[in-house]
DNA sequence: CAGGCAAACGCCACAGTGTGGCATTTTCGA
DNA sequence: TCGAAAATGCCACACTGTGGCGTTTGCCTG
């Protein structure tokens, strides 16, 4: 896994264990019963945790379903911090994301794709996902140092949009090894898309 | 205003009047006291409407603050329906949006900019805004007939992102006459943004 | 114009999420 | 071994959104 193994204190390990139990239980549970149809109490009963402790670990019901997504992005931001920044910003972002994907383990891919399928089904989760993307745009802009120009802000919006498109293309299959290819394909399509022409519909 | 004047029946006029009263009261009220800090009951007391009727008119508390935004997009979709679709999809979208803006009245601009300022302050409203944009992407994709290719989906994402950037540039001033200029500027910047280079930060 | 009909309304009660207070248990460090 | 800090569980509360149901209001026909 990507999480840095910090045995740390017994207390922190225990807290992290309940966090993990909540996240790993939540995704299958929500998938089976539906996100909006599943009361939070169902998860709490399953993991045997009180509401109070849950909300100390996660900000919201949506949050607990997003562990895999947040793991990805926190890793990606670390990669960006360590990367040497030079060249086209779009390439830098794409390569950072590819590096990030390379660091993820097999189990993460399973958890991640399950999360994406879940997000597609629930409007509230979809909204949460979009908000998360917006937050990531801010962080990425800062790290790429392109936040102060129109072109820069447009580019970051564009890159995150491309990332989402790559996920859309990947999801039906969902094979871990295929995601990097989807990312490359979509990023290659970016320059072409501006010349896309409308197709007079004929339904 | 953009709303088609349909006197219709007395009943419908009455219903529409309460809808309008709610929307026009909501934005200043939320602006003054903060969106999350203002209970819905405060608005209901101000307009003297029961909760039941409120939720028959609006789907959520966020929804009532979005009237101006929805007016814009419903008009824009109508413009797209009537427009002859040919040429580059990005240009078609930009021109449709410019036409739409031209149809809006002075009072709408005031309501709209107030709404945008409100959205910037509240996380939940911001999330609602992003979800609304996603819904509009679907509608625009359908109308432009570009939903079936990677380039097409990328383009629509890109266009809506450009629209949001234009709003960001316009908002500080907020003069009605300046928004079309912002839109043109940002759309002109789209091809350039792909070549944007990272700037080695030096904090 | 009278009276039935349907739509809109208001009131009530409920489920669900998220927050704060407070006592209790568990863990860390001295 | 003991005190401090942190995590937990329990309780109560505010707020949003929904459904039931009786009542009012406007519409439309005889």
UniProtKB/TrEMBL annotation, chains A, B:
PROSITE patterns on file: HTH_TETR_2 (PS50977)
The top of its lineage is: Bacteria, Bacillati, Actinomycetota, Actinomycetes, Kitasatosporales
Where in the chain is the DNA-binding region found?
39-58
What keywords tag this UniProt record? Answer: DNA-binding, Transcription, Transcription regulation
- The record lists the organism as Streptomyces spiramenti
Q: Does the keyword DNA-binding apply?
A: yes
Q: What positions does the domain HTH tetR-type occupy?
A: 16-76
Q: Tell me if DNA-binding is a UniProt keyword of this record.
A: yes
Q: This chain belongs to which protein, by name?
A: TetR family transcriptional regulator
Which Gene3D superfamilies does the annotation name?
Homeodomain-like (1.10.10.60), Tetracycline Repressor, domain 2 (1.10.357.10)
């Amino acid at each position: 896994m990507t999480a840095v193994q910090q045995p740390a204190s017994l207390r922190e390990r225990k807290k992290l264990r309940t966090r993990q139990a909540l996240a790993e239980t939540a995704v299958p549970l929500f998938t089976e019963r539906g996100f909006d149809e599943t009361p939070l109490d169902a998860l709490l009963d399953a993991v045997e945790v009180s509401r109070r402790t849950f909300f100390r670990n996660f900000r919201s019901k949506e949050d607990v379903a997003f562990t895999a997504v947040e793991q990805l992005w926190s890793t990606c931001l670390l990669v960006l911090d360590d990367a040497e920044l030079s060249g086209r910003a779009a390439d830098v972002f794409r390569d950072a994301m590819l590096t990030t994907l390379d660091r993820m383990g097999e189990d993460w891919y399973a958890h991640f794709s399950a999360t994406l399928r879940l997000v597609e089904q629930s409007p509230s989760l979809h909204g949460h996902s979009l908000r998360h993307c917006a937050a990531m745009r801010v962080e990425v802009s800062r790290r790429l140092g392109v936040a102060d120009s129109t072109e820069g802000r447009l580019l970051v919006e564009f890159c995150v949009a491309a990332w989402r498109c790559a996920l859309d293309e990947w999801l039906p299959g969902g094979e871990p090894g295929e995601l990097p290819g989807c990312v490359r394909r979509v990023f290659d399509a970016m320059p072409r898309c501006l010349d896309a022409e409308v197709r007079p519909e004929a339904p």
